[in-house]
Amino acid sequence: MIEQLSTIFSYEFMRNALIASFWISLATGVIGSLVVLNRIVSLSGGIAHAAYGGVGIAYYFGQDPMIGAMLFSITSALIMGVAQRKTKSGADTLIGVMWSIGMAIGIIFISLTPGYKANLMSYLFGSILAVSGSDLRLMALIAFLVLGFVFFTYRSLLAISYDETFSTVRDVPVTLLYLTMLVLVGLTVVVAMRMVGLILVIALLSIPPAISLNHFKDVRAIMLSSVVLSFLFCFLGLVISFQTNLQAGPVIILLASGAFLVSSLIRRLHFSKR
């Protein structure tokens, strides 16, 4: 088994994919736990899909699609976040509208761009085996930003996650923390799309924390186990995709989804015996 794994990861592209998995697991495991605790998975999905507009515009003007996706995701995160803070009832509609607008803009600008566009499919469906050195550096930067944000604001993040009203009374900068969290969600989504694509990125962001939440109550434990689970799914997905010649992103998500179903079943059986 060890010899087989050493053979698989003797290839540079597989080693890069494994390193990318580590950085992305750190970012998605930590920020994804906050997403699940704050019940903003749908909002995160809106940010993810709106980012495709930035991919299309950047590609049309001959710029790096990752930069376009980042700018679009940050802008979308701030607009959706402010809307949700101001009008709780109408936020879902705005999220759906921006989700659709982002995808539509991306598709239109890509269709207007002459030439072969097959490489853009990787932004929709992922292409972790094609990550470059610059991609790895960007993933590491985003992971450190997420870890730094959580480390320095941990108590305040706990407060707004569990009791926003009390946090406001105690003069915690709720809106600033909330919008910063959404911006980091947007940045995490952009780097994670290199692995699983925009279509599947929300699953990677939400499934490992959802599994952890089934078995842990302490937020630190939830974050740590989410990181471990995310990396485990990525590692197994890479190995399986290499051996079966399947695309890594969907394999990773299927493994995570299967684990979530098993975890939920175990939790239900545990509570039924009480």
Number of helices: 12
Could you give the distance between the termini? 40 Å
Uncertain regions spanning at least 5 consecutive residues: none
Q: Percent helix among the residues?
A: over 70%
* Gross geometry: globular
Sequence of secondary-structure elements: HHHHHHHHHHHH
Strand share of the residues? under 5%
What would CATH call the architecture? Orthogonal Bundle
Mean pLDDT equals 86
Report Rg. 19 Å
Give the C-level CATH assignment: Mainly Alpha
Number of strands: 0
Class of secondary structure makeup: mainly alpha
Oligomer: single chain
CATH topology grouping: ABC transporter involved in vitamin B12 uptake, BtuC
**What's the story with the biggest beta sheet?**
none
**What is the assigned CATH homologous superfamily?**
ABC transporter involved in vitamin B12 uptake, BtuC
**Number of discrete domains:** 1
In words, what does this structure look like?
The chain has 274 residues and is an all-alpha fold. It has one domain (2-272): ABC transporter involved in vitamin B12 uptake, BtuC, CATH 1.10.3470. 82% of the residues lie in helices and 0% in strands. It has helices at residues 2-8, 12-37, 41-60, 65-86, 91-112, 121-125, 133-162, 164-169, 174-196, 201-213, 219-244, 248-272. The longest helix has 30 residues, at 133-162. The chain starts with a helix and ends with a helix. The relative contact order is 0.16. The mean pLDDT is 86.
